[in-house]
Structures are given as structure tokens and as C-alpha cells.
């Protein structure tokens, strides 16, 4: 078993040497779908760039024609993340379904556990470079999130949001 893990680690490491080749993309998808069987149906339409990390595979649903940029993190240990069709997620974006509890002043925060809430990203959404999507957020179909934004509340369909925290900038016409 250790030999298998070593060979697999070498393969995964080799992916980063050929980050944009068709072979590397297919190998990444194969390795991810090994953990998440229902992704295998969409292997040819999901594009996962290098250095993307998924935590809580069983809670992540990726629909067809999705692009996930380099170095993104999707954390879904105990709540679901759903990414709709034709969605672009730019590099270094973080999507996280958990946050620390902190309400008990007599207990250290590290011992208070987590609050887990699902995230839904609609279809035809564009999330810009280095955004953070926090627990419980729903991003409507056709929405755009500007680069470096922190999304703390729901984004209605066909709206453009940006900033820290993200606020409405305009609407798509």
C-alpha cells in the first residue's frame, strides 16, 4: 500500500510540471473523481487547474462546464457546496462552509467547535481572482463577484458585487 501511495504522489507531483496540458487536466480530474464518483460523468467538461484543493469531497457537487482556477480551496467538511453550470472561479478563491463558534466568553474559541452552513453558487457565475465565499452564502445565477471580494451575504441573480464585505456595484442588463 505504501508503494501505491508513493507512486500516486509522484504522479500528482508530475502534474505540476505540465500544468496546462490536456493530459494533466484529465489526470487531475481522474484523481479527484476517484474520491468523488459522481464527478466522473462530467470529466470532459470540468476544468480543474493545478494546485486546487478539495476538503470534504462527499459534500462538493460540481456541475458541467465549470472552470476552477489555480490554487483554489473548497472546504466542505460538514455542509454542501454546489457549483452550477457554466461557472468560472478564478485563481486563489476560497470557498469555505465552516466557521468557528465564538459566543461563549468562558470557553476558548479553539474549543467551541464549528458552525457549518451550505454554499450554493448558481449557473453562469463569474467569481473573480482571490475571492472568499463564506458559510451560508447563496450566489444567484448570472452573478459576478469582483476580484478580492469577501462575500458574507447572499448575492441576487444577475448582480455584480464587490468589496470587503461585498456590496452591490451594479446589475447585469
UniProtKB/TrEMBL annotation:
Record field: transmembrane: 6-24
Pfam families for this protein: Hexapep
Name of the protein described by the UniProt record: Maltose O-acetyltransferase
Molecular function terms, GO-annotated: transferase activity
Taxonomic superkingdom: Bacteria
UniProt entry keywords in alphabetical sequence: Membrane, Transferase, Transmembrane, Transmembrane helix
